[in-house]
Amino acid sequence: xxxxxxxxxxxxxxxxxxxxxxxxxxxxxxxxxxxxxxxxxxxxxxxxxxxxxxxxxxxxxxxxxxxxxxxxxxxxxxxxxxxxxxxxxxxxxxxxxxxxxxxxxxxxxxxxxxxxxxxxxxxxxxxxxxxxxxxxxxxxxxxxxxxxxxxxxxxxxxxxxxxxxxxxxxxxxxxxxxxxxxxxxxxxxxxxxxxxxxxxxxxxxxxx
Amino acid sequence: xxxxxxxxxxxxxxxxxxxxxxxxxxxxxxxxxxxxxxxxxxxxxxxxxxxxxxxxxxxxxxxxxxxxxxxxxxxxxxxxxxxxxxxxxxxxxxxxxxxxxxxxxxxxxxxxxxxxxxxxxxxxxxxxxxxxxxxxxxxxxxxxxxxxxxxxxxxxxxxxxxxxxxxxxxxxxxxxxxxxxxxxxxxxxxxxxxxxxxxxxxxxxxxxxxxxxxxxxxxxxxxxxxxxxxxxxxx
Lengths: 208, 235
Description:
Distance between the termini of chain B: 18 Å
Strand content of chain A: over 45%
Largest sheet of chain A: 8 strands, antiparallel, barrel
Strand order of the largest sheet of chain A: 1-2-5-7-8-9-13-14
Oligomer: heterodimer
Strand content of chain B: over 45%
Shape of chain B: globular
């Protein structure tokens, strides 16, 4: 027989379990057509290629929008709301260095994803017609709301790590490109997985 | 030295010139959650060999695959077709692309199919991120040139792509292919792969570039300005 206080705990966990256990393992957010201006160390506009040393600065772009939100690779068919990307990525010989941070704000309603990139854990790469950059993320946080494009992302409001991907960076002679795409992948925080597992185990025990 | 008004005209002409000379338009298909199966050199399903894989990668789609279409960075809301099929293969020798082919089909509301078929070049190598967290997220990548891209219709899934359709003959469109999130399991299977396919109008390699309306207007303006600049000479 189960103690009454334990019963209450089980019931409380079971009340949470359905929502938590069904959470996906990772969240992917795709943003299309943002603008990047590369500056050299001197601050002058410019980009020197795969081994660039300088800063990639994100700028407002009227055509930047939310392309997709996926849970474990499955599209949640979000609304293509406008997106504002801000922040910068510092590069030394093409490798991400300290002080690199990015904010992605989704409108209507507003919700902002902010994160830093880990120094030394990301680098420029080449792709046909331009460059890309893949880097490790530090802790990421969503603020201002729990939905983006109408999709609820509550399990990922705070995550410990993840991956950041910038691509289709095809700069002109002054390092400017206005059709850059971003992808962010944020794993489900361990606490949510453990809570879901605990709920499942307790549910199994309760049946016995 | 040119008179001032001619300097102004030439400056205006030069301001228009880049638009005309660099006329370029890109169509991008963004396909998410595709499947990839690694094969060995005999074409049999096998484990994936990572950065030195020899054999093939077979691309397909499953029930949760999606596709979007943008032109020059603008999402095409007119693209209302459903994702019908995605098939392709790329061969590798020690991680280096030996080339391949790919076909993307979408189904219109009237059940007709629109197709884009293209070739993938040889030469580039598989790559992976240097960070462990981003490697877990994005797996292996491949970036390659594409060629001989052909649409079967000037309307692709509801979107008017006439400039691309008219500009593809006879050699087809050039462009780019980028594969992301290839993280095969022990059997060489990955079911969350993303692929970007770029068709570039300016790089058809088959003669004159088809001018877009904006560049045609710029060209007409340039010619008008040059004609005006010559006019004082004959007076």
